[in-house]
Amino acid sequence: MPRARAETAKEVSVQESTITLGVLTAIERDPAMTQRSAASEVGVALGLVNAYLKRCVRKGWVKIQQVPRKRYVYYLTPRGFAEKARLTSEYLSFSLDFFRRARAQYDEAISACALRGWKRVIIVGETELAEIASLCCHDREVVPLGVLALESQAERFAGLPVFASLDRMPEADAAILALAHEPAELGRALAVRLGAQRVLAPPILRLPTSGYWTNPQDLP
Q: Would you say 109 and 200 are in contact if contact means Cβ atoms under 8 Å apart?
């Protein structure tokens, strides 16, 4: 299997495991939970929680008991507790691996900036990856000017000022993307302002190849 397809399959598997773990954790915390409250806690659609609950019941991880007023109570079975422990260990292992890969790739991006004399950078995205990028700046002679997060209500993130629009963003030498989605319109605007070679997107973002940002590994 090609590497890209293998990584995609692994990401889908991790996402499924994360949702299952979230459902099992919600049940353990509150057996009288509603599917709607579980959906809010896990951060997925109501229909998806329903599908995962049915799967957990089929697997023998969860039992359902009807109580008065047409309500339901959910219980983790011994197999359910064992599965939750396994998924927790798997999630922590994946999270550590993800952090290591992200740290290495953002360190590479920041190093590329330092090598080219791009001393003042903007980090784009109010995410955990932005925090990692900020940490990497401390190891190099690169100054993070702040975080660009469109329409954000926050004043600071990861100890840095937040700029809620391009108009408020100070002049920078480069931008480091740390978004979980494809920022096509924003990427275009940053490319116009800074040049596409100075808008860096580490491979861990899995953004499509475009004329609006550059993989740090592809810099001349």
A: yes
